């Protein structure tokens, strides 16, 4: 089997592991797919488990955030060690976000792709990603609305990527960044609707 195909399949499947769902089920006895917003990400883990055990909620939320970010990074770093070209690395980045958002383990449902997206972008474009994470953290503190803060951070990344890399090294196109952004925005449509209705919950 072609090495790239193995990497692509691995990226999709590893990114599809629903850590938030597994951690909440194992340590809090909660099925987060049927609680809170129904999302498997860190915010919903934090929000749902908080009702039972605030201390545990913080630990599980942080663990989910970390694992969701790292699972996208692992295969890209392996591919880098194998000397894969930039085009392959960017494909792996996109497939990691696809895997998380449309997991084979959850009947092709999944999270919103923020932690996994920022994880892979941190490897592929460290400076724009760090700028975006700083903007995201600032927005989170000020607004206390996770979805809106995430989307503001994503917009900050797109702007920073164009300013710092008018031509993306190795591929010459921002297409993979736009694919990741579109997937994340698509997964946030229910949140965007709630934001317009002023019904989006604060964290």
TrEMBL record:
Record flagged with keyword Lipid metabolism: yes
Function: Catalyzes the transfer of an acyl group from acyl-phosphate (acyl-PO(4)) to glycerol-3-phosphate (G3P) to form lysophosphatidic acid (LPA). This enzyme utilizes acyl-phosphate as fatty acyl donor, but not acyl-CoA or acyl-ACP.
Molecular function GO terms recorded: acyl-phosphate glycerol-3-phosphate acyltransferase activity
Swiss-Prot/TrEMBL GO biological process terms: phospholipid biosynthetic process
Organism, scientific name: Sulfurovum riftiae
Keywords: Acyltransferase, Cell membrane, Lipid biosynthesis, Lipid metabolism, Membrane, Phospholipid biosynthesis, Phospholipid metabolism, Transferase, Transmembrane, Transmembrane helix
Domain of life: Bacteria
EC number: 2.3.1.275
Protein known as: Glycerol-3-phosphate acyltransferase
Record text on subunit structure and interactions: Probably interacts with PlsX.
Compartments where located: Cell membrane
Annotated Pfam families: G3P_acyltransf
Pathways involved: Lipid metabolism; phospholipid metabolism
Segments traversing the membrane: 6-24, 60-82, 88-108, 120-139, 145-165, 177-196
Chief location of this protein within or outside the cell: membrane
HAMAP family cross-referenced by the UniProt entry: PlsY
EC primary class: transferase
Translocase keyword on record: no
InterPro entries, A to Z: G3P_acylTferase_PlsY (IPR003811)
Membrane-related topology note: Multi-pass membrane protein
Catalytic activity: an acyl phosphate + sn-glycerol 3-phosphate = a 1-acyl-sn-glycero-3-phosphate + phosphate
Family according to the record: Belongs to the PlsY family.
Gene: plsY
Cellular component, GO, one term: plasma membrane
SMART domains given in the database record: G3P_acyltransf
């Amino acid at each position: 089997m072609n090495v790239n195909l193995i990497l692509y399949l691995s990226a999709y499947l590893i990114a599809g592991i629903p850590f938030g769902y597994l951690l909440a089920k194992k340590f809090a006895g909660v099925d987060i797919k049927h609680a809170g917003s129904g999302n498997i990400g860190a915010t919903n883990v934090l929000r749902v488990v908080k009702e039972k055990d605030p201390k545990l909620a913080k630990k599980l939320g942080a663990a989910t955030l970390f694992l969701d970010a790292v699972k996208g990074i692992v295969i890209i770093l392996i591919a880098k060690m194998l000397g894969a070209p930039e085009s392959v690395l960017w494909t792996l980045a996109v497939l990691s976000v696809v895997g998380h958002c449309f997991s084979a383990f959850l009947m092709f449902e999944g999270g919103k792709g923020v932690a996994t997206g920022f994880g892979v972008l941190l490897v592929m474009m460290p400076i724009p990603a760090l700028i975006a994470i700083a903007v995201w953290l600032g927005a989170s503190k000020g607004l206390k609305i996770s979805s809106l803060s995430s989307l503001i951070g994503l917009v900050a990344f797109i702007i920073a990527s164009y300013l710092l890399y008018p031509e993306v090294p190795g591929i010459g196109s921002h297409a993979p960044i736009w694919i990741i952004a579109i997937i994340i925005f698509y997964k946030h449509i229910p949140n965007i609707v709630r934001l317009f209705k002023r019904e989006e919950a604060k964290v």
